[in-house]
Every structure is written in C-alpha cells, then in structure tokens.
Amino acid sequence: MENVGRIINNIKVLYVEDEEITRIVTKKILKKVVGKLFIAKDGQEGFELFRKYRPDIVITDLRMPILDGIGMIKKIRDFDQECGIIINTEVEDMDYILKSVDIGIDKYVLKPIEQEEMLESLQNVLFKVIKRKKDKNKLYEILKLSKEEKKKIEDEIKVKVPSFIKQSTGKGPRDVQVFCGGSVIEVRIYDVLTPMEKVLLDDKNNLILVEYYRKLFYKQIHNQLVNLVKAIIKTEIIISKININVLENMEQIVFEIKFDETFKLNYL
C-alpha cells in the first residue's frame, strides 16, 4: 500500500465540479494526496483541461452547466481509453450513473466524500489505469515503426483515403490528419459533408437524419476502407471505432491491428 500511496502522490488528477462549496472542500482533500491537481467548473472547461494536461484520473460531477458530466466523459473517452474516471454525485442521480457506466466510468462515489474514501477510490481506479496501460503497451510492441516508416504510411493514407471518399460521394474532405502509433491508426477527416447534407443541416431537425446517412455510408464502404489501409500497412486490420460529429463537420476513424476475433465494430 505504501508503493501505491507514493504513486498516487505523483499522478495528475482533474476534478470537475460546478458547486463552489463542494469544489473547495474536495479540492483540499485531493491536494493532500495527489501530485498535480487541475480544477474545472463545468464539463466544457474540464474537457479543455483534459486535452491540455492529459491527467491520469478524472473525478467529476454529472449535473453541470454548459456541458454535463456525461457529455464530457464521452468526449474524453474519444481521446483516451486508459485514463481513470470517477463520478462523484448525488443519490438521486441514479439515471445519470447508469448512463455513465455505459460510456466507461471506473467508479462512482456519493457526495459528500471523506478523505479516506477518496484515497481508497483513487487506489482502486489507479490499479485499473495501470493494467490498461500495460495491456496497451503490450499491443504496441507488436508493431514498431521507424519515424520514416510512420511518416510514409501517414502520408499515403492522407492521399488515398480522401481520394476514395471523393470517388464514393463526389465530395472530398478539405483536410485529413493521420496519427499512426503502435497498433492504432487514427484518421481525422474535416469538412466531409456533401452539398446535399449541408443543405439539410440548414434545418437543425435534420441533424439525426444526416448523422444516419453518414453512418450508413461508412457501413457500406467498410470493407473497401479496410482493404485500402491494409494494403498500405501490409497488416491485417479492423475498424474499431467511427465517430461522426455532424455539427463540427468532422469524422474520426480508428483502425487497429487485428489480433483475434474478440474485436467488434463500434459505430458511435
């Protein structure tokens, strides 16, 4: 337990809470036990701090203005699947708690929280974070690329994926970013909506309809897209995630090396 305590003393924690008194009390508790502490007053500020500092563990309320805890957690999980997430909320937030379990929290604790319970929660979640990072690093050992090989793959994907999308829809993206690391290739596509889809979005009631069209499009081209990237990296891969953000006109496709049959498609 002493070793775990020393590790906790060096971790980065993001605490998100809109209620001032609760924030002040919990801040005092956390400052005693963690290495670096970042404080946010709502989910939007919390997500911005997360992207900037990439904390090891996030502790958050659920009911908050601007962006609630559920929305923030979804955004965080799009960026990071290894960090720990603890929700600290009220008893009557049971519906919110159930929703948060579905999007990847590690633990929930009820308000008010005492120092002993906070320390125990941090320890339990830290074990999960360490295990996830170890498992991920094992996967990363399977595919090691030099800087030159990585850049060559990224550059080829930047050329071929937009060309393929343009051939399929008649509209190519304005920009494509590719991040290749270990067993994962992430492709971010910007300004990809067709003129017809943009016209539909003039009426915000069509938001769900356009999102449905985009999901359907990717399901139809799924095999071709996999084969295209597989030919570039010369390794068996799958699409593990597709995120579609119609309002920001941005889409994210995550490819992973295919290790076994336990992988499943996750169209969000």
Q: What's the shape?
A: globular
Poorly predicted regions are 260-268
For this structure, what is the CATH homologous superfamily of the largest domain?
Response regulator
- Range of helix content: 40-55%
Described by strand count, sense and barrel closure, the largest sheet is: 5 strands, parallel
Order of helices and strands: HEHEHEHEHEHHEEHHEE
Domain Response regulatory: 12-126
Protein name: Stage 0 sporulation protein A homolog
Keywords: Phosphoprotein
InterPro entries: CheY-like_superfamily, MpsC, Sig_transdc_resp-reg_receiver, ST_Response_Regulator
What does this structure look like?
- Strands 2-1-3-4-5 form a five-stranded parallel β-sheet, sandwiched between helices.
- The chain has 268 residues and is α/β, with parallel strands linked by helices.
- Helix 3 packs parallel to helix 4 (69-79) and helix 7 (147-169) crosses helix 9 (207-233).
- The protein is 50% helix and 21% strand.
- The model is unreliable at 260-268 (pLDDT under 50).
- The protein has two domains: 2-140, 3-Layer(aba) Sandwich (Rossmann fold); 147-257, Threonyl-tRNA Synthetase, Chain A, domain 2.
- The chain contains nine helices and nine strands.
- The longest helix is centred in the last third of the chain and has 27 residues, at 207-233.
- It has helices spanning 2-8, 20-33, 43-53, 69-79, 94-102, 115-140, 147-169, 195-200, 207-233; strands at residues 12-16, 36-40, 57-60, 84-89, 107-110, 175-181, 184-190, 237-245, 250-257.
- It starts with a helix and ends in an 11-residue tail after the last strand.
